[in-house]
Specification:
It contains 22 helices and 24 strands. Helix 6 crosses helix 7 and helix 7 packs across helix 21. By secondary structure, the chain is of the alpha/beta class. The strands form four sheets. Strands 2, 3, 4, 5, 6, 7, 8, 9 and 10 form a nine-stranded mixed beta sheet that branches. A seven-stranded parallel beta sheet has the order 14-15-13-16-17-12-18, with helices on both faces. A six-stranded parallel beta sheet has the order 19-24-23-20-22-21, sandwiched between helices. The protein is globular, with a radius of gyration of 31 Å. Bound molecules: adenosine-5'-diphosphate and magnesium ion. Magnesium ion binds next to helix 10.
């Protein structure tokens, strides 16, 4: 029977139930899956040399005759060697294999083989260690550019390569084309068959790059088609009309808004009156005053008798927002409640009842706001503050929540991500940029110091406190990483919570016995956290020792010094967020990054932070230094996983793909044309968790 893309791998010789299970682990069930399983890298095995001419610095193929029966020696427990001599017309080569006893049975004296590996020279002798080999004349994996696949235990690269070889040879016929012909033509993209064939078994590196370009484009095109559809879908959707005048709201503020704040509020006001559902991102660096802009939205919603939910990434921030909003909006008659994971029992029940009855206008909280059992009488506006995890998928799911019409959605972000990435992550949103800080701010002076400066630094803390200011000291702690938006993994094991607690106590007892030191971390009960934070906020504490729970959003304008311990363990953007906790008032402010790391990269990173206060620039630098893989940590952006495209390297292509996608979706919003059927299916698959949204 001929193989097709639907043929299960179990029907192939050499794939029994045990292997099939392992292949399943790699997501491989059918021949078609193999076509989609992409090599990680390639080995150029095309070069074939005489032994004497073999290059010393890179592997190549040599065609030789095995001159003797392989000899095995047991060197010690866990180490055996198989040695064999081979010859061609130019020289003799000694070949050694480590711990591959079976080779003794495989290599036969008097037969010719192709070996692929580096030919080393030892004086007049030639040697190879652990080369790959095949019988001459039956070569499958030498003399070509060899794909190297991601593997799992029990599945060798040769096995996989054998399978993909068959898939490429036998299952490419009639492979349907997902890219519309016009798009392929406009962007000079090769056909899907050519791309599949050459991504696995490239004819040469030019063919590989042509193949890869097409596959990257296709992936980004499918992604951006999905985003464009989402955006389109929602801008079609009727939205509640919620008129509100920024001027009128501004009278409630204790300051007069900056130009950027005014512009953002105008954008929002226009959206809320447009009759369509708002989907807006407000981007502004730390300290640009996004809270006031969010408050405007909440105010406008309440004024029109619909409810608003304001979601923050941590309980701490939710509590602070509740305080701020209460102060601003209660005088205007807005009824407010706080709903976090710590609100339980009777209290919670009463709150939920009030929410469902419409007795609450603004509810502030964490993601608990959208958990099961939370019902709104009329949810008209959702605001997500610093919620980097509030990605495409979550926003899309929300659109379902609002009953009659989808709620308006407003996302606030300090955008510690490069612009190009924001383009995709927030690709379905309209954007207001707040590129202006409130007046009277001086940039935070930043220093990176070693352990040697610790005593001087403590002296500086005292000086700040004597001047009436307050100080943060932040330590990394492993236990809380779960509830924070973290930009990448920490580079080393952070202190455990106990170590952090001990450090705080020692600071109080030994270093600052005369100062008021408080301590807060994610494991404290909400009430305790709240108590410490509000004590700090009203000036009842001089020094706040904390884990990264204060990373985003915390706002105490009197604080003027931020100290970060083990600074090398944080991402740059994360440090920038932390630094953003100071310099929020009129006082000259400082950030001290303490590190005992000697690593060159670590120092370079911290230096980058000392050199600039521009969040965008820092994000770009972060991306450059850490590479795109680390930048996001794992799937924190809520976007589908990409297989081929590289967020950093393929940016140019992303722009192309995005424009093409927007054009296509504008012409055929539902991707309903027959020519777009496969594309539509791919979009749905890529966003599989939200497949329903694209049906
Ligand atoms: P972020 O954009 O980081 O969320 P916030 O909204 O927390 O910034 O504002 C930072 C600080 O600046 C707060 O203390 C806030 O009260 C203050 N602030 C905001 N807007 C203005 C303004 N127009 N004039 C003066 N101070 C402002
Ligand atoms: Mg904020």
């Amino acid at each position: 029977m001929p193989l097709t893309r639907q043929t299960p791998l179990t029907e192939l010789p050499g794939v029994g139930p045990a292997r099939a299970k392992k292949l399943e682990k790699l997501g491989l069930g059918t021949m078609g899956d193999l076509l989609d399983y992409l090599p990680q890298r390639y080995e150029d095995r095309r070069e074939c040399c005489a032994l004497r001419d073999a290059p010393a610095d890179r592997p190549c193929c040599v065609s030789v005759l095995v001159a003797e029966t392989p000899r095995i020696s047991y060197v010690r427990r866990g180490l055996t060697l198989v040695k064999v001599k081979a010859v061609d017309g130019t020289a003799v080569v000694n070949i050694t294999f480590f711990n591959q006893d079976y080779i003794r049975e495989v290599l036969r004296a008097g037969e010719s083989y192709v070996f692929y590996g580096t030919v080393e020279r030892q004086g007049n002798l030639f040697a190879m260690t652990n080369p790959v080999f095949e019988r001459e004349g039956a070569a499958r994996f030498t003399g070509l550019i060899m794909p190297v696949y991601p593997l799992t235990a029990g599945i060798s690269n040769n096995l996989l390569a054998g399978l993909t070889r068959r898939a490429v040879d036998e299952c490419l016929d009639g492979l349907p084309e997902a890219l519309p012909a016009q798009v392929r033509k406009n962007h000079q993209l090769c056909q899907t068959q050519y791309a599949r064939k050459n991504i696995h078994y490239p004819a040469d590196f030019e063919a590989l790059s042509i193949a890869r370009r097409r596959l990257v484009f296709e992936e980004l095109f499918v992604l951006t088609c999905g985003l464009a559809q989402l955006k389109d879908r929602r801008s079609q959707g009727a939205g509640r009309v919620l008129p509100g005048e920024p001027e009128e709201f501004a009278a409630l503020l204790p300051f007069s808004p900056t130009g950027a704040q005014r512009r953002a509020m105008d954008d929002i006001a226009a959206d809320l009156q447009s009759g369509k559902a708002m989907n807006r991102l407000v981007q502004g660096d730390v300290g640009s005053g996004k809270t006031a802009v969010a408050a405007f939205g909440a105010w406008a919603a309440a004024k029109n008798g619909v409810q608003c939910a304001l979601m923050a990434p941590t309980e701490l921030l939710a509590e602070q927002h509740a305080r701020t909003m209460e102060a601003l909006l209660a005088p205007a008659g807005v009824r407010l409640a706080l709903l976090t994971g710590s609100v339980k029992g009777k209290e919670k029940k009463a709150l939920l009842a009030a929410l469902a009855a419409g007795e609450i206008d603004l509810v502030v909280g964490t993601h608990a706001l959208f958990s099961q059992g939370v019902e709104y009488r009329d949810l008209g506006l959702v605001i997500a503050d610093e919620q980097h995890r509030f990605g495409v998928a979550q926003r899309a799911a929300l659109a379902e929540k609002g009953g009659a019409a989808p709620p308006h959605v407003l996302v606030m972000s300090a955008t510690p991500i490069p612009r190009t990435l924001a383009l995709i992550i927030y690709g379905d949103l309209d954007v207001s940029v707040m590129d202006e800080l409130p007046p009277g701010r001086t940039p935070v002076s930043t220093f990176a110091v070693g352990e040697g400066k610790r005593q001087r630094m403590y002296g500086f803390v005292r000086k700040q406190v004597q001047a009436g200011r307050q100080v943060y000291i932040v330590c990394p702690s492993v236990e809380e990483s779960g509830d924070l938006p973290q930009w990448g993994e920490l580079s080393a094991a952070p202190m455990d919570l106990k170590a952090v607690t001990t450090y705080a106590r020692e600071l109080q007892e030994k270093v600052f016995p005369d100062l008021r030191v408080g301590f807060v971390h994610g494991k404290l009960k909400s009430k305790e956290k709240e108590a410490v934070m509000s004590a700090f906020a009203v000036g009842g504490l001089d020094v706040l020792v904390s884990t990264t729970v204060i990373e985003v959003g915390v706002d105490v304008p009197n604080a003027s010094l931020m100290i970060v311990e083990n600074a090398e363990r944080f991402g740059l953007s994360q440090l920038h967020q932390l630094r953003g906790r100071v310099g929020r008032g009129k006082h000259e402010s400082f950030c001290v990054l303490v590190t005992s790391s000697r690593s060159e990269t670590a120092r370079e990173r911290l230096k980058a932070l000392c050199a600039t206060n521009d969040g965008f620039q820092i994000a770009e630098e972060d991306l450059r230094l850490r590479g795109p893989g680390d930048f996001f940590g794992k799937r924190q952006h809520g976007l589908p996983q990409l297989k081929v495209a590289d967020f950093a390297a393929d940016m140019e292509l992303l722009k192309e793909a995005r424009e093409a996608a927007q054009e296509l979706v504008a012409a055929d919003p539902g991707l309903k044309r027959p020519a777009h059927r496969l594309l539509k299916k791919k979009v749905r698959e890529l966003f599989e968790e939200n497949g329903a949204l694209f049906s």
